[in-house]
Amino acid sequence: MIPTFSLEAIVIFAAGLATGVFATLFLRKKTPKVSRGAVVIDASKVAGRGAFAHKPIKKDDIVERCPALEVTDKDIGGELLNYVFYGSAENKRLVAMGYGMLFNHSPQPNVAYYREDGPTGAELIIYALRDIRKGEEMYYNYGDDWWSTRGETCE
Ligand SMILES: C[S@@+](CC[C@H](N)C(=O)[O-])C[C@H]1O[C@@H](n2cnc3c(N)ncnc32)[C@H](O)[C@@H]1O
């Protein structure tokens, strides 16, 4: 026997279906990208994660001010060695907080950095070398030594 459905049952079923589709498409929790100020972290074009412009950035603008902690090279080992900056002496290393340690390398960099020592401690200041479009990945130049001392090659 073929079951029959009333018009009300069909309408209720269709409304439930439409609500489910709507909820799935528009209300589901999207994985938010991490962003702060001018920087958003996303999948890099060259290696793992990278730092991207969250908005258009003008040449010489500061991209990120990173509170930094100077430590000795004895405090740093393993993979962390690939993330820290040179410090104020040969045996010193600078741990940059915020997004400072997530910028990848390019021989044609669009950002560079300098160190500032203020009353509250060291900061690593990352600034734009040229105008940067929203969505562009930002790179600084790690320098030839960085690659030769690790026996790695860059993209
Ligand atoms: C300071 S971290 C940069 C963030 C890193 N991509 C991540 O996902 O955490 C340095 C690491 O990224 C890699 N890297 C950075 N720039 C690269 C490039 N142009 N080509 C290949 N690897 C790169 C280095 O090998 C190193 O292990």
From TrEMBL:
**SET domain residues:** 32-143
Its transmembrane ranges are 6-27
* SMART domains, alphabetized: SET
- GO:BP terms for this protein? methylation
Q: Name one GO molecular function term.
A: methyltransferase activity
- Which PROSITE patterns does its entry note? SET
**What keywords were assigned to this record?**
Membrane, Transmembrane, Transmembrane helix
Q: Which domain of life is it from?
A: Bacteria
- UniProt name for this protein: SET domain-containing protein-lysine N-methyltransferase
Task: Give the source species.
Answer: Chlorobaculum limnaeum
